[in-house]
Amino acid sequence: REAFTETLRTNTSIIRRRLKTNKLKIEAREVGTMTKTNLAICYLDGVVNPNIVTELNSRLDKIKEVDSILEGGCIEQYIEDSPYSPFPQIQYTERPDRVAAALLEGRVAVVVDGSPDVLILPCVFIQFLQSPEDYYNRIFAGTALRWIRYLGIFIAITLPSLYVAITSFHPEMLPTNLALSIAAAREGVPFPAFFEAIIMEIALELLREASIRLPGSIGSALGIVGALVIGQSAVEAQLVAPQMVIIVAITAIGSFTVPIFEASYPIRMIRFPLMMLAAVLGLYGVMLGWLAILIHLIALRSFGFPYFEPLAPLKLSGLKDVLIRAPR
To answer: How far apart are CA 176 and CA 38, in angstroms?
Structure first.
């Protein structure tokens, strides 16, 4: 249950307690002409690539004259490689064990005064699909959980667009009984499958955002009541087919498998353009969308390092911590 706080010195002492070595270096800096926000750059001397520390200091020097730095997220937006990419190129966490593990891997941590989130850089996409619990469990449990996560993310991105594409363009791919069941359920529904999916996905995002803003007890009740009442009412009013409610529910469950919260935002956003492509081009549109996503991920850099490593460029030795969770 230990976590970072809003106090810089408390956070650096938590890191120091985890890494009892004189190789741990902590460099103090100040940014923001109005706020004069203190921050600390943490790394392990002899483990980190010194070019990363040099590049980070160079980028921080460029924002010294910025008026205000109120939180770590402000620094992230100033120093990341591609600010217009939906994918986060810097990881932030409140967990000391995750920061200690990142430092031991040769990464750099940036602790910002007033923020409980510590920035970790550089990062790769696979990091956002891994959880510390993978390494605390036995290898078979850690590998199984990781594959369940991969499946959940694929479902969260692709399932609504697959439903739109197959029901609109490729019904011959469905078993006869299932195709007849979907056709019977959609009889009387005034909207095409694409508009059904958009309506239900927007309703889901509204419920999710509203439940975050409300107190805990009310928020959970809103999620349950809203999903049941709105879903059932929409089906009975013949605004959407029952299958679409199931698809949206499974999609929401898949998005909850992402272990790092900031990585769930791009996954939630990507499925909307994928649904548009599916509504226009069918399965060809879904495949084109996936190709565009993969090309973007391969082209991304995090402080000069390939974002999709070790998959692209392929490093076979790195797959032991991607496809499986190899023994320690």
So the answer is: 65
pTM equals 0.86
Q: What is the 3-state secondary structure (H, E, C) of the chain?
A: CCCCCCCHHHHHHHHHHHCCCCCEEEEEEEECCCCCEEEEEEEECCCCCHHHHHHHHHHHHCCCCCCCCCCHHHHHHHHCCCCCCCCCCCEEECCHHHHHHHHHCCCEEEEECCCCCEEEECCCHHHHHCCHHHHHCCHHHHHHHHHHHHHHHHHHHHHHHHHHHHHHCCHHHCCHHHHHHHHHHHCCCCCCHHHHHHHHHHHHHHHHHHHHHCCHHHHHHHHHHHHHHHHHHHHHCCCCCHHHHHHHHHHHHHHCCCCCHHHHHHHHHHHHHHHHHHHHHCHHHHHHHHHHHHHHHHHCEECCEECCCCECCECHHHHHHCCCCCCC
What's the half-sphere exposure (Cβ side, CA atoms, 13 Å) at 68? 3
Distance separating alpha carbons of residues 32 and 41, to the nearest angstrom: 16
pLDDT in tens, 162-198: 999 998 898 888 888 888 888 888 887 888 889 888 9
Could you report the per-residue pLDDT of 210-259, keeping only the tens digit for each?
A: 777 777 667 666 666 777 777 777 877 788 888 888 898 899 889 888 88
Contact 73, 66 (CB under 8 A): no
